[in-house]
Design brief:
The chain contains 4 helices and 4 strands. It has 186 residues and is an alpha+beta fold. It has 2 domains: 67 residues; 109 residues, Band 7 domain (Tetrahydropterin Synthase, Chain A). It starts with a helix and ends with a strand.
């Protein structure tokens, strides 16, 4: 019987160790459940925001579809101009620019009416081109900006109000666009 009492303390020592393990497992399980709930909540919020952004994108797409870009039943008229050859601004050395361009108008009547203003239009374009540096005209984006600037200045010279830029709106004046047939910097 002497052997029996030592067995009891061993069982007693094993029992508190088991008791210590249970709360640790319980804490780990609670933390894991909390993390899973947080991830689910974040997923739901993300889906709601994505749905909201898609609704906004659909609204913007409807705005762009609502206004036709080109009316094929009324083709535009193009008014070609004589070639321009100008010395560019001398800051980067002696360079010159040769440009052949055409003005796009809404109809043939407007194109015919522009011919009476052609000396003033050519003068405005000449002044604009001569003030440019070669580095300001080197990329396609620079040339597109130049075309927009020519439209703004010539329409302004013709007395048209300035257009609302940035929205892709059609210019308010008789000249709708400038198209380059040739663009050479030497």
């Amino acid at each position: 019987m002497a052997k029996a009492p030592p067995a009891a303390p061993a069982d007693a020592a094993a029992e508190p160790a088991r008791m210590r393990r249970r709360p640790k497992k319980l804490v780990v399980i609670v933390i894991a459940l909390a993390v899973i709930l947080l991830l689910l909540a974040a997923g739901v919020v993300g889906l709601l925001m994505l749905k909201k952004n898609n609704a906004r994108a659909d609204e913007h797409a409807e705005e762009h579809v609502a206004a036709p870009v080109v009316d094929l039943s009324k083709p535009p008229t193009f008014v070609p101009l004589e070639p321009f050859t100008v010395n560019l601004s001398p800051a980067e050395g002696e360079r010159y620019l040769q440009v052949v361009l055409a003005l796009r108008t809404a109809d043939a009547k407007t194109g015919e009416n522009l011919k009476g203003f052609m000396p003033s239009i050519r003068h405005e374009i000449n002044l604009l081109l001569a003030g440019k540096l070669p580095s300001e005209l080197s990329t396609p984006e620079d040339r597109a900006a130049l075309a927009d600037e020519i439209v703004e200045r010539t329409n302004s010279m013709l007395g048209a109000p300035p257009s609302k830029s940035g929205g892709g709106n059609r210019p308010a004046g008789p000249i709708q666009a400038v198209l380059f047939d040739s663009f050479i910097i030497q």
